[in-house]
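Render this sequence as a predicted structure.
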Amino acid sequence: MSENKRGFLALLVLCGVLLLATAGCSGLTGAQPTPTTWYLVITNTPLPSPTRPVVAPPTVPPTPKGHQPTQPPSPTSPPTPPPLPTSPSTKQPTAPPPPPTPVPPSPTAAPTFTPVPPAPPQDVCKGDEKMTFEPNNPKMGEKLTIKVTSAQAHQNVRLEGHGNPGTPKVDKEGEKNIWLWTVTVSKQGRLSFTFYVGSTPCTANHTSTGSDASPPNVELGCAAPDVTGAPGETVNIMVTMKNTGQAQETFNVNISKSMPGGWQAKFCFGSDCHADGPVSRTLGSGASEQIRVEITVPAGASPGQKGSVTINVISQSDASANDSLQVSVTVP
């Protein structure tokens, strides 16, 4: 209950007591007093607030001389009031950075093409290469000159044969290009030479010491050149190559194929097999060697199909010494 309400109730009680006292006194005397009019004035006067007693701080006694004053314990400081709430920051919110301005891609320059100079023509055999000797039939210990001519100015040339010819002397005679080698004859009999452009033999020839001028020769033979083979089977056909000349000779062996799709063929000297040639083989006079032709029939071959292989042999010193033979396999 507030102080104003308490004061108001106290005044009401006091007025009641006064009214009762007045009425009692009038009854005792018997006299009728003149009626008195009472007015109740109510004022809303606030009561004074009670004041708290002021406590004087304790008196500190004087400190004797020679002694340091003892620091009294400091009274516990009142708790620090919580910090007042700070006003909201007036800092304006930072605006987000603007989106990057798209940069249109720069046009790609058209690729430049550096013209490539055409490759020089391949140096191959022209077909007009010709080999001659001076003298034609040298003697033992004599100098032998080997001469090769061609309308083509070959660059990468070499000569293989008796006496290990080295670097040639290059000359020109009209429209012909000339290469000259000189060797010393160191054996009796046949002297063979082969002219190469790169790794390709272009021409070959031979000469002989004394009166030995027999030409080289070669023969091919086969006991059963035409045989049958079932689908999925590999058939071997044996061919004999014989040097029928009077001197040792080197031959190039090659094959050509005429077979349906899926058929395969190769030729072998023992375990040395080749799908293509040429393959160089050297045979002494009268010597022979076996050529094994392997023809593989595919599993899906039909009856009546036939695969053929032609073997070609040519002398490296004399192209006129050559022979060929065809062998074949037929599906029954």
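Summary. Residues 218-330 form a domain with the Immunoglobulin-like fold (CATH 2.60.40.10). The chain is about 10% helix and 35% strand.
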